[in-house]
Amino acid sequence: VTLVPARVLGLEDRIGSVEVGKDADLVLWSGPPFELTSRVLAVWVSGTPVTQSSSATR
Fold first, then answer.
1. Which residue in 2, 6, 40, 45 is deepest, having the highest Cβ count within 10 Å?
2. How much is the pLDDT for 46?
3. Angle at the Cα of 54 (from 50 to 57), degrees rounded to 5?
4. Main-chain phi, psi angles of 13, to 5 degrees
């Protein structure tokens, strides 16, 4: 959710932007996410890095 929908929902203090203390699930891509040649470089779930060996990726 981006900032405007978070504000509409009254959740801008928890979600909607990347800031210290906010909830975050993020994916870092090597290029545009819908390009076939792009790959995932890193993943964070609830602000915690997820590795390939993690149960979250199975």
1. 6
2. 87
3. 80
4. -80, -15
Find out whether 25 and 32 touch, Cβ atoms under 8 Å.
Answer: no
SS (H, E, C) the chain: CCHHHHHHCCCCCCCCCCCCCCCCCEEEECCCCCCCCCCEEEEEECCEEECCCCHHHC
Give the number of residues written for the chain: 58
pTM over 0.70: no
pLDDT tens-digit map of 9-38? 999 999 999 899 999 899 999 999 999 999
